[in-house]
Design a protein that fits this description.
Elements: E1 17-19, E2 22-24, E3 30-34, H1 41-53, E4 58-60, H2 78-90, E5 95-98, H3 105-109, E6 114-117, H4 125-131, E7 138-141, H5 148-160, E8 166-170, H6 188-195, E9 200-202, H7 204-208, H8 211-224, E10 228-232, H9 250-269
EC number: 2.5.1.54
Organism: Alkaliphilus pronyensis
Protein name: 3-deoxy-7-phosphoheptulonate synthase
Length: 270
Amino acid sequence: MELKIINKKHSNDVKKIKVKNVVIGGNKLVILAGPCAVENQKQIMESAEAVKAYGGNILRGGAFKPRTSPYSFQGLGEEGLKLLKEAGEAYDLPIVSEVMDTREVEMVCKYVDIIQVGSRNMQNFSLLREVGKVKKPILLKRGMAASLEDWLNAAEYVAAEGNEDIILCERGIRTFDSFTRNTLDLSIVPIVKELTSLPIIVDPSHGTGVRKLVTPMSLASIAAGAHGVMVEIHPRPKEALSDGKQSLDFTEFKNLMEKAIGLNDFLSEN
C-alpha cells in the first residue's frame, strides 16, 4: 500500500483537526450526534439542544440522503442545510453533513463546518478530488465493501488535492450475517492509527443498525482507541423519516454520554 501523504511519519504523528472550539485527534473524546436526516426546524432544534445539554461536541444531520430505495425520504436538500446551520449556531455546535454530488460541493460548503463523504461515495473519485480542493475538514466514511487499502487510498485522493484535514469514519462493512445491518469492524481502529496520521471515529449506528447495540458498541469503540463516536439520535425515533430503528432517544443518548465520558476518563487515567 503506497501512502505518500497520510502515512504515519513517526510514532507520535497524529493529525489534530480543529473545528471551531473542537479538536478531533487530540486526547479529548469527541461525540458527533444528531438525526439521520433533518426533517423540520423543531426536530433539529430539539436534537441540537440534547447534543449540547448532554456533552456532545458536533451536530450531525443529513440534508441529502442516499437511500437504497428511490422512494424513501431523500432529505430536504439546501433547506435542510439551512435548518442545520441555524441549530448549530443556536447551540454553538459545529455541524457536519454529507455531500453527494460534485455540483453541490460549493453550496454545501456555505453551510457546514465538516463535509461528509458517505460510504456509497467513498470511491467516487471525482467527488474525492473536488472536496480535496476545499478548505474544510472532510469526514470520509469507509465503504460498505471496502478493504483497508481501498479506504486509505480514497483518503489519499483527497489529500493529493491539497486537503489533508481528513477524519476517517468506520461505519461497518457488509458480511454474511443478517442480524445486524452491517458488521462493525473495530479492529480497524488500532490498525488505522498505526498506519496513518489521520484521526479515526466510529459510527455504531450504521455499524449495527440496532438501537440496543449502539451504546455497547460506542463504548467498545472508545476502548479500541477511537478519537470519537458518531451516533444518530432523534426526539421520537418511532416517527423518524430515516433510520429510526438505529436512533437513540434523548434519554438513551444521555445514558450513553454518561458512560462514554466515564470510560474515557478511566482510560485517560490508566
